[in-house]
Each structure stands twice: as structure tokens, then as C-alpha cells.
Specification:
single chain, mainly beta, Jelly Rolls, eight-stranded antiparallel beta sheet, seven-stranded antiparallel beta sheet
């Protein structure tokens, strides 16, 4: 199963975050209904820094506004600077994909689509992110939620480490998050029927009734 988001106002959020700084890795399976918008698949955010809509975040982003419909590993800081790595190939509407964003340091972020199509951005983030205090699936979970995702999301994992290319390829092939570097896994929500996280202890709220849908099985 998976959670299906409308692209309008639906999301799944927690008022806390399992990780607050680099290194971290965000991974998820996703199936988009559109390729004409820039939306957030999963994010961890600061809801207090800056003005509404400008709070810092780390995010796995789907960008249908760019040529080729890539996904991105995106860092946004409190001074309004965005640094991101953009995949070398793009997602297909109506197809399940695996996406992963690895934030190794202030000057390194890498994105993977389906275990490959990797790219790294090494721009130095000009100012460290403030306190990360929210986790969001299907949007940027800032004080004013934004970039709502239109499609389905499942198998969300967050690690307090930078996963390797081999580990990410394993996830893309179907390995569940709890079998890949489990000692560093700080959040895991399969999104099978309910919003209970299997790792992390976060309380997740379904905002505006996102629905449950089928998604391909992954092996344990």
C-alpha cells in the first residue's frame, strides 16, 4: 500500500524531526500523477527560522518544471539560498520510481533516481540551516505548507548518515529501509495502510485525508 496525495493540500506530517543536520539521507518510493510542477516528496524542515514560506529545509524534490523531469536533493538555508543536485534522467508519470537524496556536508548533496542517474552538487551552503523541527511527506512542511505532492509515496526512510551508492542501489532494487544500515536509520514509515512509523517514534498526522492506494511489493 501507499499514501496518495492530491497535490492540493494533503500531506503527512510530524511536529518533530529525526535528524537536524548533515549528514543525512532521505529515500522514498514515489509515483507521480503530473510532470508540470515542482513538488516535495519528503522533507525535514525548520518551521521557526525566517519568514513564513522561507524556512530552511532538506528535501527530496520532484521537478517537472525542469527539462527532462528530474528529481533533486535540495538544501535551502535561512538566507534564502538554494543548493541542489539534479538527477541526470527524469521520472515518468504513472510509474513507480525510487528516489534518494544524500546530504553529506555543507558542501555536498547527491541525488539518485532508481539507484542511478546520480549527480552531486558541491556548492558551499552559505549559512547553516537553523533547527530542523518537522518531518513531512508530500509537501515542504514549513509554517505555511508548500509544494504539495500529486501522486503516491511509500517506503519513506531517513538516516542520520550518508548512504553509499551501493546501499542506495539496494533500496532501489526493492530492499526495505530497515535492512539497509539499520544502525543509522532514524525514521522509517512504510505507509502501508496507516501512518505508523516503524522507526523513529514520531506521531504522524494525515492532513486533509490523503488516501491509501496500492503500490508494488518490496522484499524484506
Amino acid at each position: 500500500m501507499a499514501y496518495d496525495f492530491s497535490g492540493f493540500n494533503q500531506s503527512a506530517t510530524s511536529t518533530s524531526a529525526p535528524v537536524t543536520n548533515e549528514p543525512l539521507t532521505i529515500a522514498a518510493r514515489f509515483k507521480s500523477d503530473v510532470n508540470n510542477a515542482r513538488t516535495a516528496i519528503v522533507s525535514v524542515c525548520d518551521t521557526n527560522g525566517g519568514v513564513a514560506g522561507d524556512q530552511p529545509f532538506f528535501a527530496l524534490v520532484e521537478d517537472g518544471t525542469k527539462a527532462g523531469d528530474p528529481i533533486c536533493a535540495t538544501s535551502f538555508n535561512r538566507n534564502g539560498n538554494t543548493d541542489e543536485a539534479t538527477s541526470t534522467s527524469g521520472f515518468t508519470v504513472g510509474t513507480w520510481h525510487h528516489g534518494c537524496a544524500v546530504f553529506t556536508s555543507l558542501s555536498s548533496r547527491t541525488v539518485y533516481l532508481d539507484g542511478g542517474s546520480s549527480a552531486t552538487n558541491t556548492t558551499l551552503l552559505q549559512s547553516r540551516l537553523q533547527t530542523i523541527d518537522k518531518t513531512a511527506v508530500g509537501c515542504l512542511g514549513r509554517s505555511t505548507n508548500a509544494a504539495f505532492y500529486n501522486g503516491q509515496v511509500a517506503e519513506v526512510g531517513i538516516w542520520n548518515a550518508a548512504l553509499t551508492a551501493a546501499e542506495i542501489a539496494s533500496l532501489a532494487r526493492g530492499m526495505t529501509c530497515d535492512k539497509v544500515r539499520p544502525q543509522s536509520l532514524v525514521f522509517y514509515a512504510p505507509l502501508v495502510r496507516d501512518l505508523t512509523d516503524q522507526k523513529g517514534g514520531l506521531t504522524i498526522t494525515n492532513n486533509n485525508s490523503a488516501t491509501v492506494a496500492n503500490h508494488p511489493r518490496v522484499y524484506a
